[in-house]
Amino acid sequence: MKTLDLSTTQVYPAFVFGTLTYVLIVLFNLLVIVTIAVSKKLHKPMFILLFSLPVSDIIGATAFFPQFLLSIVLKTRLVSYPACVMQAFLIHLYGSANLLTLTAMAYDRFVAICVPLRYNSIMNSHKLITMIFLIWFIDLSFMLILFILFVRFKICRKNIVDLFCNNPSLLKLVCEDTSINNLYGIALIIVFQGGTMLIILYTYAQILRTCIMTNQTDARRKAIQTCGTHLVVFLFLQINTMFTFISHRLQSTSPFLRRTFGVSVLIFPPILNPIIYGLKTNELKQNIIIFLKRNVGSTK
């Protein structure tokens, strides 16, 4: 693999920045996980679904940052083949888990806003457990098949074109026919990117329609604010991920842009998700403050 294009003076700032970013991602997301777990008031469908988001964010960050920080210190992107495949698997697992979780959360908001009187019967504990199980079962199943299809090949090259290992960059190491892998990859893009986008567009169109029709200004404002934030997070993940995948299939795309968009998917959602949902969701924000006062304050 190629060396990192970092001068001696850039190594230390890059390492400090990367370490701080990773530590903040883990701390912020763990805070959300622990707060939801210990606060009985948050044992509601929306927050139980939200629980999966910081879990997948930590998986994605942990797959990327330790290896990246090691590369900074060693000034090389050298990584073993098994470690590269594992990193790629975890990163893809993270991305698709985020898409599925955000889609499930959109459905929860759709039920809460559009059919509030039936919310408790629709979003019951059985359906909630089923949704969470399906998110991770579908994610694990599809990603395992993706990488089982890859590991049957023998690689003939050694240079990963991105700053981290992923399926498109791994396939570029193979000199055999990868048409089956390419077709399966396209099918995954259609299912995960296209399928989740269709569900999101439908649910938010219905939510917007309900908000326009309602006469309760305050309820309408809160609904639009919550859904607007959720939509921004989803679209950021969708657009950046889609650009990264498509850029691997277009030779004219700038490698710098491809790497920038790819790395942004692993940095911004994991660090912004807990901040956005922690600050914008009043109930979660209040319980985080209570949790911090109770545990951090008591140690002083």
Structural classification: mainly alpha
CATH class: Mainly Alpha
Q: Largest sheet, described in full?
A: none
State the separation between the terminal residues, measured CA to CA.
49 Å
Radius of gyration: 21 Å
**Could you tell me the strand content as a percent range?**
under 5%
What is the name of the CATH superfamily?
Answer: Rhodopsin 7-helix transmembrane proteins
Shape: globular
What is the percent of helical residues?
A: over 70%
List SSEs in N-to-C order: HHHHHHHHHHH
Description:
- The chain has 300 residues and is an all-alpha fold.
- The protein has one domain (8-299): Up-down Bundle (Rhopdopsin 7-helix transmembrane proteins), CATH 1.20.1070.
- Helices cover 79% and strands 0% of the residues.
- It has 11 helices and no strands.
- It has helices at 8-38, 45-50, 52-74, 81-114, 119-122, 125-151, 167-171, 179-213, 217-249, 255-280, 282-295.
